[in-house]
Amino acid sequence: MTSGVVIGVIGAGRASDVAYAAAREVGRLLAEAGATLVCGGLGGVMEGACRGCTEAGGLAVGILPGAVAGQANPWVGLPIVTNLGHARNIVIAHTAQALIAIEGEYGTLSEIAVALKLGKPVVSLRSWSDVPGMTRADTPEEAVRKVFALLSGRNP
Amino acid sequence: MTSGVVIGVIGAGRASDVAYAAAREVGRLLAEAGATLVCGGLGGVMEGACRGCTEAGGLAVGILPGAVAGQANPWVGLPIVTNLGHARNIVIAHTAQALIAIEGEYGTLSEIAVALKLGKPVVSLRSWSDVPGMTRADTPEEAVRKVFALLSGRNP
Amino acid sequence: MTSGVVIGVIGAGRASDVAYAAAREVGRLLAEAGATLVCGGLGGVMEGACRGCTEAGGLAVGILPGAVAGQANPWVGLPIVTNLGHARNIVIAHTAQALIAIEGEYGTLSEIAVALKLGKPVVSLRSWSDVPGMTRADTPEEAVRKVFALLSGRNP
Amino acid sequence: MTSGVVIGVIGAGRASDVAYAAAREVGRLLAEAGATLVCGGLGGVMEGACRGCTEAGGLAVGILPGAVAGQANPWVGLPIVTNLGHARNIVIAHTAQALIAIEGEYGTLSEIAVALKLGKPVVSLRSWSDVPGMTRADTPEEAVRKVFALLSGRNP
After folding, report:
1. Count of CB contacts below 8 A, A vs C?
2. What pLDDT score does A154 carry?
3. For FRET with B96, which of C108, D110, D131, D149 sits at 20 to 30 Å CA-CA?
């Protein structure tokens, strides 16, 4: 079994209903496109994305900050247990070929910046948008469409 | 999609033909038992295990020490790219619920010791065997049987 | 020997002459105030800060991304060799009690965001300034004065 | 200020009185020789070594597994706060030019193995001694003498 394209979804561990629903839709669209989802495996945006992905039959990988798999949200299909704290964000940025940021706060900003430093495309769905180099999207559909376009080297 | 039981296979990046074949058989048996394989994703024992697992339709996760997915052996189904060097061994020990060590040198010994410290069962297939707390096995079949017995809390 | 207050200085590995001179002045002022400097140990802003600190008799700690101490700039007094790549930035953010960012690009932004997430005061000296929660400074003296004020819980 | 030679001391977080006293003596001898001590910064052997080093005027660096400097034993001169859990052991092995292991259990064994893999000399003072490549010592004086001999490329 191979994972196909690996897309990261990043965002805060506590999310509004709107952000959760957007993340779930992003997760679903990624799974339907045959991508593997990688995220931080906790709540909020991470849970929404895992849920949408798993409900659509995809593989949702949760790269966890703590020492036990039980920390994962219930929609994580494969927990990667790091016990590295925030340093696990760097692993997400390295593992994902491109990322979609949904809302989010300082942790998300940190991950966006690392991903851009690594040269990974990053799409912002109502997330930090004044960071040069990000691509804006207004809907989950647009975010997923643009992330695949960026990966193909096409103009999003 | 969920990953089921996650079993680690550890061993040296350069392996004898015998060790490679044993690792491949271990990988096959793990996949047939419905387990997900996690390993370091490079050559030797790691490649053998990934090959057997992938050939049998299982998911072989490679937790890579370097910064690029291209470092993975061709049988890795899902590369987790850490750029953490040897520290990625700690992630393998945390992620696996139990481990099988096949031959191996200092790196394998280090991983065995971390796994034992974390309280994970470790089966030694012609690997370091004078470390207290390990369970010996002489064949791939015995190693896989014992690792599942240990996970179930049964006497191997 | 104890290290006293530990202040982080972050910024790009390639710096303009102006940024290098500012970093050197910051390093000198920190050493004169009895602080220990912690930084990424490479060139540019990191080297300027280490140089100023070491010239003034302080301890400049370089938390290096690579696997060898020889990677450090010549003004590092104590190299901490991590081989963790960008994840070493998280170690800097945890180790420093407060940070001064001097110019810098995505890597610096990432470190600023992690530090703010950890609740550490961050002073921006011509660095990313539109991140909420940072304190601006226009000169090295002002940056050092403000970083100590923030650490004391005073209004900078 | 420069750190001179950096020597790691590793061992369990809970130590017998004999091991604590031995570690303290090792720390004192390292400081008197002008070396910087690096260790895990917690209790037991780590505390003994830091105490001896600091009492003799040396710098004792504690590379901590947790997220706060307050976790350090009271004799740590410079806390490096990693929040990396056991992965901080890898940082100790990379940072030290040579290591002395005093008693210790699985964690110490893991660190010994990583250090040997990195090609660092390791002296065992009543620690794991059946690992090929280690140098045995029976007293703190012998351990420190041998570690410096090994660093100089001399036959210990």
Report:
1. 57
2. 78
3. D131
